[in-house]
Amino acid sequence: MRAILDRLYLVSGVLAATALAAIAVLVLSQTIGRLFGVLVPSANELAGYCVAASAFLGLAPTLNHGVHIRVRIVTQHLSAPVQRWLEGWCLLLGLGLSGFATWYAIDLVVGSWRYGDVSPGLLAVPLWIPQLGMAAGLSIFTLSLLDNLLRLLRGREPLYREHESQEAGR
């Protein structure tokens, strides 16, 4: 199971990076197009979709590699058992909020697909396509929070702590 989850997190990170690369290609093509008087239709809109996909698909890998912004100014002064309890509570709260957001993101995708919603720009993009990146990213992030919470409850370090420890040892 661990290998499957790790691959899922890796794929999510690769897709997030691909969306970032697509933004660069869109901006570059728009810039070069202007030099030659060529308009790249809906480039801004497509880049915006890629920004959202990149942000949401990058949530889980960023969490698991310990690079989310975490303020430890208070927790570093607490005892280890209190830190673990507080960390578990925060993971549980994050899991609830992320699960709530995931539920509604999936509902948004299904609704857009069912009603045939399209973007209002020059390029009529079915809205479920860019919304899918958000829903998938939130789903994987929710799974990642659950994964880390279960690791903590089993007495193991969450993935982000393992990566933080590895970085500190370098």
Overview of this protein structure:
By secondary structure, the protein is mainly α. Helix content is 75%, strand content 0%. It has 6 helices and no strands. The protein has helices at 2-35, 43-57, 59-64, 80-115, 128-153, 159-168. Helix 2 runs parallel beside helix 5. The radius of gyration is 19 Å and the shape is elongated. The protein starts with a helix and ends with a helix. 28% of the residues are buried.
Summarize the structure.
The protein has 170 residues and is mainly α.
Keywords:
170 residues; mainly alpha
In which range does the helix fraction lie?
over 70%
The average pLDDT score comes to 92
Q: N-to-C SSE series?
A: HHHHHH
The chain-level structural class is mainly alpha
CA gyration radius, whole angstroms: 19 Å
Give the tally of β-strands.
Answer: 0
Describe the global form: elongated
Distance between the termini: 29 Å
Q: Report the β-strand fraction as a percent range.
A: under 5%
Please work out how many helical segments DSSP would assign: 6
Main sheet makeup = none
Q: List low-pLDDT spans.
A: none
